[in-house]
Amino acid sequence: MRIRSLFFCLSALASLAACSKTDAPVRLDFVGATGLLSGNRTVEAGDTLVTHAYAVGNDQPLKRLRIEVTYEPGLAPILYPIPTSSFDTTRAPRSLRVVYLDSLLPAGSGGAGRGSEILFVNGLMARTTSGKETWTYTATDASDQTAARAYRLTVRKTDSAAVFHNYPLILRPIPFKAPRPASVRDSRRVFLNLRSGLLLPKYAVLNNSASLLANQTLVDLVCVANRAGTAVSLAAPADTASRVPLNGSKWPADADHRRATEVRAVGLTPTQFANAATNAGILAVFNAGAAYKYPNGLTSNKTTGPLALNQVIAFKAFDSNGVAYYGLLQVTAFTGGTNPLLTCQVKVQKY
Questions:
Q1: How many CA atoms lie within 13 A of 110 on its CB side?
Q2: Can you give the pTM of this predicted structure?
Q3: Which domains does the chain have, with CATH numbers?
Q4: Residue 285, φ and ψ in degrees, nearest 5
Q5: d(CA 47, CA 125)
Q6: Cβ partners under 8 Å of residue 295, min gap 6
């Protein structure tokens, strides 16, 4: 994926987390500064973090930056038995590896020329289930010389033994056709996996080399905004009626790549949402819900329509094996305008 504006050209950069002691063909470091993630850390579930990755090609132009994340165990929440000490660890979700970024560096920028430098700003969200995740960054130059750095995040969720999984969401969609730099559009995390709470930016699901197609199969809902940013909705990748900005040449239209998540409006109050604490109760709420009705009278079960403060949506999604699971989403805050902000709380059934 060529994402010119995601990379910043540098003439000099100080305060690196750990400078290389030799002039290797390629050097990669994390910038160490207050508020930046540059090493192993224990974090809260769903924490938002930022890393500045700095790379320099000492001999050849840099040509690629790749970021991989390995989740151990996998991201799916675990339904623990009672007592939890009887849990068979061999039944934990298998580790999951996600290619988070696979990008060709733009020619003619900081990625071109001997001794050139680039700085990549990675805003990420920690897993919402207990476990570890290892982020590995690899820079490659024109002669295929590489340098890599990694750090590990550890999450210990205090309510892992609950019968349902819950997590917060912060979504910042771009208003439809609003003028924004590619660096802004590509880095906004608006592609959501409902079971795990995994939230991906555009550059993690779309590129020009088709190396990210597997990530498209993880997406249950996409957050979209209208032109003015005054209305925000969630829509399934399979939705064809709303403004889901999916390019057919880069995001295949088959059922494997475009999940047909169903969403329904329900009349729950915030108190009723808070009290929904059983799998049977969540399913009952979904069954009592209604599809969204457009102003022209047509209905759709693939989009929420414009969301409002305290509104609750019930959903039916499908895992990679086609098994259905159900959940609820409550809008806890919404700010419209040129930079809309949607905050939600999600409850979802476990296996």
A1: 19
A2: 0.87
A3: 1-159 (2.60.40.3880), 162-351 (no CATH)
A4: -65, -45
A5: 6
A6: none
